[in-house]
Amino acid sequence: MGHAGIASTLLDVSAAEEPPGPVSRQERKQRTRQSLLDAALELLADRSFASLSLREVAKRAGIVPTAFYRHFTSMEELGVALVEETTRTLRGLLRGARTENSGYGGMIRASVHTLHKHVRVHEDHFRFVTRERYAGPGAVSRAIAVELRMFSSDLALDLARFDPLRTWPTEDLHLLADLIVTAMLGTVAELLDARPGDTAADERILAEAEKRLRMVLLGVPHWRPEGQPRI
Amino acid sequence: MGHAGIASTLLDVSAAEEPPGPVSRQERKQRTRQSLLDAALELLADRSFASLSLREVAKRAGIVPTAFYRHFTSMEELGVALVEETTRTLRGLLRGARTENSGYGGMIRASVHTLHKHVRVHEDHFRFVTRERYAGPGAVSRAIAVELRMFSSDLALDLARFDPLRTWPTEDLHLLADLIVTAMLGTVAELLDARPGDTAADERILAEAEKRLRMVLLGVPHWRPEGQPRI
DNA sequence: TGTACATCAGTGAACGCGCGTTCACTGATGTAC
DNA sequence: TGTACATCAGTGAACGCGCGTTCACTGATGTAC
């Protein structure tokens, strides 16, 4: 339970290591549930979700395999919970980064840096999500696809505030937003591949990420949504 | 061996189902090897590589588990062979599509359509590669990364022939090429997600893919490689 | 061409192991009176 | 406040199963003479 508790504070889910006084049955249950999530995430640091066994996760969480079923009906259900845990706060952070900055440049810089900080704090979560995104036909991949669509919709909404984009058809706006989300996911994968603690690598990756986004947005004023494109 | 043979003809590796006359020992060995690759690919249609067992593959290929080791030292080695099988011909096809067309528009259209045709013929191969790309720290993911870098280098080379790109620094060129390769991979994933035989869906996905690439390339003439970007 | 030996792809039994899931249980927490 | 009963998170034994890998083997193909 020790290091599992530490991991959970990173997400600020259950802040205190061992709170004072007696604890209700449902509080204890919630803590064991979190231990299972934390244990799974640690094991997923260098493995695929499909290769993870219920017994391993239970063992690492400090419970007997059969007690797992008190919290999740299957490993798949736990995986979906991990996906939700990953995106829970990031969506709000990114929306904030965009609304608190005006102009492409500021928005790009703030978004990239917000993403960077968040990914570095929750590396295991993002490793899990980038790995499982296309991992197969299971509930986990489906949950990830849903979350990404939400990121994309958030972004499309904010992009629509820019003058040349204001008049774009919705589908073109979503195309652009998807392109940006995909590029950002590539950046996440690069960050997770970099040697740990390699600050220079991080800065290079962030610079490249900003450059990529500028390249994409550079074409926007020249795009003709209706009629023949000029290329 | 029956349907395994059929799958292999799709790749044109061993064309005849049962050639006439006696067959040398090494020919037979090569055929069994191909059966193993085909069997693995069929099983991978809706599963992750990590969840695939040596025994399953051997069984489907029609040999006893222990005979597997006559062909590959491990499942991982088989996985790497599958990656090579996937990209073997596509690289040349895409290079051809670009050199036989001039101008962004023609190149984009030809590339997207070439990719589409190839993906549709070899769906299982591409499902495997898109799934395993980020699947973990194994040899398979590493092999995929190497292949993608080669696609990107090919593309950068061809992009350098365009006038505004001719003078770009190499790193910016590679950034642009990576962006395009990533976008194309997204298109592959969309194609594989579409309902089989849904021609309308295919056409929509291809149209979107072309649009995305045009969006990206639209910014090119306005990019300032040196000095401050205008955004 | 015929014979004797070497090679080696594929066989089949056996091993110890971790897997998911079942089941009846325990004992602390919660609730009704 | 005290007692009797209900709830339910966690236990531990047991099951049948598929796994990767070992080993000694078989018998067709290949080679040397």
Topology:
Two copies of one chain form a homodimer.
Chain A: H1 2-10, H2 25-43, H3 54-61, H4 75-87, H5 90-99, H6 103-121, H7 123-132, H8 139-159, H9 163-166, H10 170-193, H11 199-218
Chain A binds a DNA duplex (33 and 33 nucleotides) through residues 22, 24-25, 28-29, 32, 53-56, 63-67, 69-71.
List keywords for this structure.
homodimer; 68% helix; DNA-binding
How would you explain this protein's 3D organization?
Chain A has 11 helices and no strands. Chain A has 231 residues and is an all-alpha fold. Chain A starts with a helix and ends in a 13-residue tail after the last helix. The N terminus of chain A is likely disordered. Chain A binds a DNA duplex (33 and 33 nucleotides) through helix 2 and helix 3.
Q: What is the mean predicted local confidence, pLDDT of chain A?
A: 90
Number of helices of chain A: 11
Oligomer description:
homodimer
Topology, number of strands of chain A: 0
- Which range does the strand content of chain A fall in? under 5%
Helix-residue proportion of chain A: 55-70%
Structural class of chain A: mainly alpha
Note poorly predicted spans of chain A.
1-18
Task: Give the termini separation of chain A.
Answer: 60 Å
**Secondary-structure element string of chain A:** HHHHHHHHHHH
Largest interface: A-B, 39 and 39 residues
> What value does the Rg of chain A take, in angstroms?
20 Å
The main β sheet of chain A shows up as: none
In short:
By secondary structure, chain A is mainly alpha-helical.
